[in-house]
Design brief:
By secondary structure, this protein is α/β, with parallel strands linked by helices. It contains 10 helices and 8 strands. It has an 8-stranded mixed sheet with strand order 1-2-4-3-5-6-7-8, sandwiched between helices. β7, α9 and β8 form a beta-alpha-beta unit. The longest helix is centred in the middle third of the chain and has 18 residues. The radius of gyration is 18 Å and the shape is globular.
Amino acid sequence: MSAHAQTLRTSEADLVHDVLGPLPTADGRPPLFMIGQPMDAAGFRALASYFPERTVVTYDPRGIGRSVRRDGRVDHSPALQAADVHAVIEALGAGPVEMFASSGGAVTALALVETYPGAVTTLVAHEPPLITLLPDARAAVRARAAVWDAYEEKGWGAGTAAFAMMASWQGEFTEDYFDRPAPDPAALGMPADDGSRDDPLLSDRSWAVSSHRLDTDALTGAPTRIEIAVGEESLDTLTGRTAVATAGLLGRRPTVFPSHHGGFLDGEFGHAGQPEAFARKLREVLDHAG
């Protein structure tokens, strides 16, 4: 099914979103909204293809992909992004949505439920990187800062290599982690420094995402059914541990999904996951009435 791109123009941004399927929906269910951050709509092509009977909506967060921002800012605030997503939901005119949200998008989605509790019926929040919830939060913040330092000093390749080391580290960040030599980007096939320092993943522009403080009362009091998801291969990594911590804060256990942090991706974006198995699990969770 082809995607119909639409643009919602607000005073601060042009919010480009893709609608796959009819509105009102053909099956009578809410639209299924898929969001990420810093991933844009393109990252959900594989996952959406496994829901041909559903109307699926994806979007590019402001300042990322096709969504141009005019607010004079460069940071990625969950509160602003939540307001953007809510505006898109309102513009769809199809009522509350079901939502699958991954990584920084999961943080946006939780902020959305905090502020607009009637906008989402069911939220599956996949590995929100809320590092301040960890028992080793100070060390995790230090590891995050080291990624930025590598990026600022040596560029995208060094920053990406440092990020990969942080994201793949098993367990808490100990001195053993910080004593490791910096990975060589050339050995990993990374390109030379192109001089840019605006990458939303490697710079400090998304620190507001990983530092977001949840409003637990608002989340537990909302009518939204919230499921925190974690990949079976991610459990001991940074985002797996933050998923477990988020679920614990909300008084529940995480739902285990196939694969890793990018488990819904095919090979288009590098480290392929298991999108078919992932979609099967997502369908099961969304269809569960309890």
